[in-house]
Amino acid sequence: MPKIKTRRSAAKRFQVTGSGKFKRRRQNLRHILTKKAPGRKRRLGQSTTVDRTNEKAVRRMLPNG
Fold first, then answer.
1. Could you tell me the fold of the domain covering 8-61?
2. Which of 5, 9, 38, 46 has its CA 20 to 30 A from that of 31?
3. Neighbour count for residue 22 (Cβ, 10 Å)
4. What integer pLDDT is reported at residue 64 of this predicted model?
């Protein structure tokens, strides 16, 4: 049976932390930034963990994760 290939798009978007959780980038920081408050933009720049409900799907896309 062949090895399961990693989904390259997911590999570029998610990173596994030391505890086995997945780190991801937040959305809404690409364009139309003038109307967003500085504090909001600062928070959006920080990474966050993948939600528990989506963790199974991300794990399936990254077999080594």
1. Factor Xa Inhibitor (4.10.410)
2. 9
3. 21
4. 82
R_g over Cα of the chain: 15
User: 3-class SS at 24?
Assistant: strand
**Predicted local distance difference test score (pLDDT) of residue 65:** 74
SS3 of residue 22 by DSSP: strand
Domains in the chain: boundaries: 8-61
Amino acid, res. 47: S
pLDDT in tens, 19-59: 999 999 999 999 999 999 999 999 999 999 999 999 999 99
The answer to whether 14 and 39 have CB atoms below 8 angstroms apart is no
Token pair 């937040």 is found at 26
Q: pTM for the full model?
A: 0.85
Comparing C-alpha atoms, which of 26, 10, 6 is closest to residue 58? 10
Token code pair at residue 22: 């997945």
